[in-house]
Design the sequence.
């Protein structure tokens, strides 16, 4: 029995959700637990992405990366669309793990981190922009105090 794109979508989304739940709600003082959302799940998703991309991207006639129309053509194939989704899941979770660790280093309270991590989970670059803005403000405040 072959695995369908819908099954892969469900597995990838569930594993990413598990990673986000660990990042947002569980303690980070246990390195083995933090390893799961920071590296293990993004690595697994990256392997899935690589398999989907290599198997399907070059099979779409008229698809490519030279124009928006070519990219749109790529995503008309369900497996390539799934690869794109898995790409988002892997990178957003990896960035979320980085944000969580950096925020802990700055001493940012978990209640403040949570909305930033949720924004990263839901809207990727928006959460990253929020964190980088907050971090820049933190360092500006540190320099002003010194």
Sequence:
């Amino acid at each position: 029995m072959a695995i369908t794109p819908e099954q892969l979508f469900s597995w990838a989304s569930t594993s990413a959700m598990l990673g986000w739940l660990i990042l947002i709600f569980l303690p980070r003082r246990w390195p083995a637990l933090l390893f799961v959302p920071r590296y293990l799940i993004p690595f697994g998703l990256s392997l899935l992405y690589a398999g989907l991309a290599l198997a399907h991207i070059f099979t779409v006639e008229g698809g490519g990366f030279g124009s928006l129309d070519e990219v749109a053509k790529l995503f008309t194939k369900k497996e390539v669309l799934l690869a794109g989704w898995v790409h988002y899941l892997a990178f957003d979770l990896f960035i979320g793990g980085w944000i969580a660790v950096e925020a802990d280093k700055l001493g940012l309270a978990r209640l403040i981190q949570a909305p930033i991590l949720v924004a990263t989970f839901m809207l990727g670059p928006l959460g990253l922009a929020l964190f980088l803005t907050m971090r820049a403000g933190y360092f500006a405040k540190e320099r002003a105090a010194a």
Residues 9 and 82 are 7 Å apart (CA to CA). DSSP finds six helices and no strands in the chain.
